[in-house]
Amino acid sequence: MVLQEKVKELWRNKPGFISFIVLAVIILAGILAPVLAPNDPILINLDNKFAASSVSFPFGTDHLGRCILSRLMYGTIASLGSALLVMAITITISIIVGTLSGYKGGWVDALLMRLGDVNLAFPDLVLTLVIVGMLGPGLINLIIAMAAVQWVWYARIIRGMVLSLKERNYVLSAKVVGTPSWLIVVRHILPNIIPHMVVLVTLNLGMVILHISGLTFLGLGVQPPTPEWGAMLNDSKQFLRSYPRLIMFPGTMIMLVVISFNLLGDAISDIFEFRES
Fold it and tell me: pLDDT tens across 30-52, in order?
């Protein structure tokens, strides 16, 4: 019932509802790209390069004659899917490390937090570039690098929550009656952490998408000819003056997704109000 009430509140929040619909449409278009896309996204046809909008090519074609709309739709999987995968890996690591560190304390807490301090000693972008440079360019290596860098921030937040929650009366009562530690964590700790993490993930997904697109723009992410919004920006930069629409479409998609995630995150934050049960 509580979850249903929260969902109804989201529907009543106009910015949040509109953002959810926009993201749902974009994600659905990416998933159904093999069916809905009008053309092959990697098919090169130099006879059609820089073609204007038409029935066959609704958004026109790029410098290699490839359908821009098709590349945008297929690029959703690489751009948005990789961001979701980064956050999934990051949050999984963060929950494990943060919960273990906060609940166990002692030398376990000290060891894990010192490892985190070493990570935080370097700027995120620099450390990501170093890891990608060591592993080599590619989407998988970029995902690994970003997850390896970003887990620390979330882990420290989760640790702080666990330190507070484990002193609550219901947790202390569970310990007194001999409830196993893993059951206390699953039943009493995690349910109070997850709503907070949902909000943080939603608010930070936009930033992750920007980082992935930016690093792909530098040639460190998705490699040609795989369509991806950052790669499309990189391909189009040399034609900015003559054919600005080539850079306008992927740039608009990135902006639209980032704004939608930010508005949705704000709406979810207002709904949950970061209350602890």
Answer: 999 999 999 999 888 888 889 88
